[in-house]
Specification:
57% of the residues lie in helices and 10% in strands. The termini are far apart.
Length: 161
């Protein structure tokens, strides 16, 4: 089953690559010049983890591949708000479902935008700074001068009112 999955992935990848190369050759593009112009050795080393000394590590529960991390599929199942996959993985497991990396980052950006909108529109930042100030006053940190900047910003906010 696993062999057929990777064989199908390889066939699809080869078919897409061949179609792209045929299209570029029909347009008269010199592929060697294009590769030399757009190749970045440092980026390629980063993406393939070429500087590692151990390619595959043997662990108690199986093998851990260190080279070519960008080609590894997301494998962790279960609920996870923050995906355990690396940045360059082709998909992320989010709430137990596979999601493509661009779609995942669009969702993250959307949620950050909504949180920022709620924070600014509902004026929640004022309550957060006041609560933090009260908490730090109980610890005596503001009087010791460790967070003078925060205290100064709060005083300026109070003067504007």
């Amino acid at each position: 089953m696993l062999d057929s999955f990777y064989t199908a992935q390889l066939r699809q990848g080869k078919a897409k690559k061949d179609a792209l190369l045929r299209g570029l050759q029909q347009q008269g593009v010199d592929l060697k010049v294009r590769k030399q112009k757009h190749d970045n050795q440092a980026l390629r080393d980063l993406l393939t983890n070429a500087n590692t000394t151990e390619r595959i590590e043997i662990q108690d529960d199986g093998l851990l591949q260190h080279v070519d991390p960008i080609y590894q599929q997301a494998h962790r199942q279960g609920w996870s708000l923050f995906p355990p996959q690396h940045f360059f993985s082709p998909n992320k497991m989010w709430f137990g479902r596979p999601l493509s990396t661009p779609a995942f980052f669009l969702w993250v950006a959307l949620w950050y935008m909504l949180a920022l909108f709620a924070l600014l529109r509902l004026d929640l930042l004022q309550y957060v700074t006041q609560g933090l100030r009260q908490l730090l006053n109980t610890w005596g940190l503001l009087n010791r001068g460790l967070l003078r900047g925060l205290r100064y910003m709060w005083i300026l906010q109070q003067r504007k009112k």
